[in-house]
Design a protein that fits this description.
Elements: H1 4-26, H2 33-62, H3 64-75, H4 84-99, H5 107-115, H6 149-156, H7 167-175, H8 188-191, H9 194-214, H10 220-236, E1 260-262, E2 267-269, H11 272-278, H12 282-294, H13 309-338, H14 340-354, H15 358-369, H16 382-389, H17 409-414, E3 420-423, E4 429-432, E5 437-441, E6 446-450, H18 461-469, H19 484-508, E7 510-512, E8 518-520, H20 521-530
């Protein structure tokens, strides 16, 4: 048995080294989304190891008997067989190495190096596949967007939802979860159905998995437990709007639809007229006579189901299904709020892809399939290392100049880069800054380039998609037009001016015949049709 004090010392050392490695990992500069997500997943693995070491230490400290026996053996007075324990442990070590002769020492060092991307071995010829990329589908694009096409199809197949929304409209319905519970506008008969429960269960499973994959440092399970506890309080207090169970709508056959129950025929009827009509049928008369002979209770004409065991169980299962649907809807709402930025990015990406041609989409897929460029080779110069480690102080988040440093604040205010420009055609998107400005400082050899935002967006995919939705071409005539009303008025004006130009072309263009006579185009064509020239 190993010394318990040595085990505690070893766990304390590993804890400290894990904490230093975690600090070093999180302090690195992550230029891309992929690198940031990889770092978060590695940090999550280190946190799991820290937690396991802490639990081990806690159990070792609670074992007071073993600690007391170890301390007594160390502090005992000198005896003739003091080295007996030493030799017994030495024999165990020799037996271990004899049993595992090829074991590599320093396994913990290799573990730390693998987590921090500091392998001691030389680089191999082949490249290992990124394990984080295997967690996402192609549509999710390494966790940048969500893939809800299957859930959109399931939603459109629900009954009584009205007009079937497109994928963009479906994303808008989910984005509304930041203000109201998701799918709060659906009728009760849809939300109480079995199909809705299956749909919302699949949506919850996907969003929970996506949140864990894209936010490995966030305790998503704890957040869901808090959301479920909040739901239980609201459900017990009956404060969930839209989920009040209407007993007149929950029938004994468990389909959740209003109706009248015939105890003799053991059948549910949707309307009173249908129920009254079946009372004179031969099938009902025979069933009622059979019920009278057997002594069963007579049929109840008011439609109230006969209190038997099976309908009660079915009714309770319907209530349980409604409660489960309400619970899942509440949890999905909390998950959508946590990934609301990703949902907005997904909507923008879908709009951009709709505005691309088939060739542009193929080229984009080819560009994504290309391997990323190799990172720049590290240099050993101390001066270059200090420049790389230097952090830029930019609390005002000013634009960066050509040298990678923030531009002066007076230049930022002079050219109005803090002014917001709103474009109604781009769904009221706000752009900061307007023009391209080149400014040279003669006192210092510096040239500042302030990139355009508002002027540039007229040629980007978002504005082009908005113009296409209005049925207008995105030409230079509509530059600087941000309101939908102005764009439509300008299009009508251009249409009228185009007709006037055609009329002037017919009357002002001059043509010459073989004899040298000059006519305008209209007169020339009329004379030529008559055969006079």
């Amino acid at each position: 048995m190993d010394s318990i004090i040595e085990l505690q010392r070893q766990n304390h050392e590993e804890l400290e080294r894990f904490e230093r490695g975690l600090s070093s990992l999180l302090s690195r500069n992550q230029p891309t989304h992929e690198a940031k997500l990889q770092t978060e997943h590695k940090a999550s693995q280190i946190l799991d190891r820290i937690q396991s070491r802490a639990l081990t230490l806690n159990s070792l400290y609670q074992d007071e008997d073993a600690r007391k026996a170890e301390i007594n053996s160390l502090s005992a007075p000198a005896q003739a067989n003091d080295l007996s324990e030493f030799y017994s442990r030495l024999v165990k070590i020799q037996e271990h190495h004899a049993k595992y002769p090829d074991s590599v020492p320093g396994g913990f060092d290799l573990e730390i190096a693998a987590l921090l991307d500091e392998p001691n071995q030389e680089e191999e010829e082949y490249e290992e596949e990124d394990p984080v990329s295997l967690l996402f589908s192609g549509e999710e694009s390494y966790g940048k967007y969500v893939d809800l096409y299957a859930h959109h199809t399931a939603y459109t197949n629900l009954k009584n939802i009205g007009k079937r929304p497109g994928y963009l409209q479906y994303l808008d319905l989910l984005l509304a979860a930041q203000f109201d519970p998701v799918h709060n506008n659906l009728p009760k008969e849809t939300r109480f159905s079995k199909d809705y429960e299956i749909y919302i269960q699949n949506l919850y499973t996907y969003l929970l998995s996506f949140a864990k994959r894209t936010q490995p440092l966030v305790d998503v399970d704890t957040q869901q437990q808090e959301a479920e506890a909040d739901f239980n309080k609201l459900w017990e207090a009956r404060e969930l709007s839209g989920w009040e169970e209407n007993k007149s709508q929950v029938s004994a056959n468990g389909n959740g639809s209003a109706g009248i129950w015939c105890a003799a025929c053991q059948k549910q009827y949707a309307k009173q007229t249908v129920y009254d009509a079946h009372l004179t049928s031969k099938k009902h008369i025979k069933a009622a006579a059979r019920q009278d002979v057997t002594g069963a209770p007579p049929p109840n004409p008011n439609g109230t189901p006969t209190p038997t065991t099976a309908p009660t169980i079915t009714k309770s299962s319907v209530s349980a299904r409604i409660r489960n649907s309400a619970r899942l809807t509440h949890l999905v709402t909390s998950l959508l709020v946590s990934v609301i930025s990703t949902m907005n990015d997904t909507k923008s990406n879908v709009e951009r892809r709709f505005s691309l041609t088939a060739r542009e989409r193929e080229q984009e897929l080819l560009d994504q399939a290309k391997p990323p460029p190799p990172p720049p080779t590290a240099t050993n110069g101390p001066e270059e290392e200090e420049e790389e480690e230097e952090r830029i102080y930019n609390p005002l988040k000013l634009p960066l100049g050509w040298d990678g440093k923030p531009i002066p604040y007076w230049l930022y205010k002079l050219h109005g880069l803090g002014v917001e420009y709103r474009c109604e055609i781009c769904s009221d998107h706000v752009y900061m800054g307007r023009r391209v400005i080149f400014l040279t400082c003669f006192a210092l050899p510096l040239t500042f380039l302030l990139r355009k935002n508002f002027d540039r967006h007229f040629q980007e995919s978002r504005h082009a998609f908005g113009m296409r939705a209005l049925g207008l071409p995105n030409t230079k005539h509509f530059h600087e037009i941000t309101r939908i009303e102005d764009a439509l008025a300008l299009a009508e004006k251009l249409k009228q001016e185009g007709r006037h130009e055609i009329f002037e072309q017919e009357t002002m263009e001059e043509l010459e015949d073989d004899e040298g006579n000059v006519y305008n185009r209209k007169t020339y064509e009329d004379l030529k049709k008559q055969g006079l020239i």
